[in-house]
Design a protein that fits this description.
It contains seven helices and 14 strands. By secondary structure, the chain is of the alpha/beta class. The structure holds zinc ion (ZN) (2 copies).
Length: 278
C-alpha cells in the first residue's frame, strides 16, 4: 500500500515561506494498492493530485471524513471530475438532517461555486456511509463515527499486509471520562487498533487546547496518548494548525517527546511525503 500526502493543514490553507516543509494545503491523502486508488478528503491538496493523475485509471473513490470546508474545498478544482469517461464515487457520512448530496450541493452550486454538482461531466456517484464495512478493489475499508462537531467518520483501510488509519479531525479526550484508560469507550479506537500507520489530528498545544475543548481537535499529547492506547506502529501528526510554522512544529514535537519513549515511531506529516506499507 502506498500513501502519498497532498495536504496536511487543518482548518484553512496556510501557504507561506515559513510553512514550506510541512505544506500549506488542507487535508488530502492518496492511497494506492495494485490498480486501486482512493483519495481521503478533498482539501485544497487534491488540486495537484488531479493534475498528476495515472492516465489509465478508470475509477476513483473519494472518501470524505466530513463536510467542513477544509475537507471539501478542493473538490471543484479536481480535474478528473470534468472527465466523463471516469467513474467517480464520492463517499461521506450520513446525517439525520439532510442527504449527503444536498449537503455537498450547498458548496458545489452558485454563488459559492459556478458549476453545480449535478452538472459535472463525470456525474459522480454520491454514497453515504456510517459504521460501515466495504471493499474497493483489493482494499477492505471500515468507517466509523468519531468525536468531532457534525457527522464525521474516520477510516481504517486494510490491504492483505498493511493497515492505514486516517482520523484527521478528532477529539478522543472528549466523551471518554477516563481517557486514555478505557479503550473500548474511546472514539476511534476500533479504527486505529494495531494500525501500521495512523494519521491523526494533532492541531493544538496543551495551552491552545484548554480554551478549545469541544472544538473537535486533539492536542499533540492526546494524539500520542491515543496512538499508544491503540498500539499503532507509527503515528504521523496531521491537521496542523494554520498558525504553526515548520520551526514551531519542530519545537512542539521535541517538547512533546522530551524524556518520553514510545513503542511506536512518531513524525510530522508533510505535504509531498510518500510512505510504503508495510
Ligand atoms: Zn479539518
Ligand atoms: Zn472538521
Amino acid at each position: 500500500m502506498k500513501i502519498t500526502i497532498w495536504g496536511t493543514r487543518g482548518s484553512l490553507p496556510a501557504p507561506s515561506p515559513e510553512n514550506n516543509q510541512y505544506g500549506g494545503n488542507t487535508s488530502c491523502v492518496q492511497v494506492t494498492y495494485k490498480d486501486t486508488m482512493l483519495i481521503l478528503d478533498a482539501g485544497s491538496g487534491i488540486r495537484r493530485l488531479g493534475s498528476d493523475f495515472p492516465p489509465d485509471l478508470r475509477r476513483i473513490d473519494i472518501l470524505l471524513t466530513h463536510l467542513h470546508m477544509d475537507h471539501i474545498m478542493g473538490l471543484g478544482f479536481f480535474l478528473p471530475l470534468y472527465n466523463p469517461a471516469l467513474e467517480i464515487n464520492i463517499w461521506g457520512p450520513t446525517s439525520t438532517r439532510e442527504p449527503l448530496i444536498n449537503r455537498l450541493q450547498r458548496y458545489l452550486s452558485p454563488p459559492l461555486f459556478p458549476i453545480r454538482l449535478q452538472d459535472l461531466p463525470s456525474q459522480p456517484n454520491i454514497i453515504e456511509l456510517n459504521h460501515s464495512s466495504f471493499s474497493i478493489g483489493s482494499l477492505q475499508i471500515q468507517s466509523a463515527y468519531v468525536c468531532h462537531p457534525g457527522p464525521t467518520v474516520g477510516y481504517r483501510i486494510e490491504s492483505p499486509d498493511a493497515v492505514l488509519t486516517y482520523i484527521p479531525d478528532h477529539e478522543p479526550a472528549l466523551g471518554a471520562a477516563n481517557f486514555p484508560n478505557e479503550p473500548e469507550w474511546t472514539s476511534g479506537y476500533e479504527l486505529a487498533k494495531d494500525a501500521d500507520l495512523l494519521l491523526h489530528d494533532a492541531q493544538y498545544t496543551p495551552d491552545e487546547y484548554t480554551p478549545r475543548v469541544g472544538w473537535g481537535h486533539s492536542s499533540i499529547e492526546d494524539a500520542l496518548r491515543f496512538a499508544e492506547m491503540a498500539a499503532v506502529k507509527r503515528l504521523l501528526f496531521f491537521h496542523h494548525d494554520p498558525s504553526h510554522t515548520d520551526e514551531y512544529l519542530h519545537h512542539l514535537m521535541e517538547r512533546a517527546l522530551h524524556n518520553k519513549t514510545y513503542a511506536f515511531k512518531t513524525g510530522i506529516a508533510a505535504e509531498g511525503d510518500s510512505i510504503v506499507l508495510p
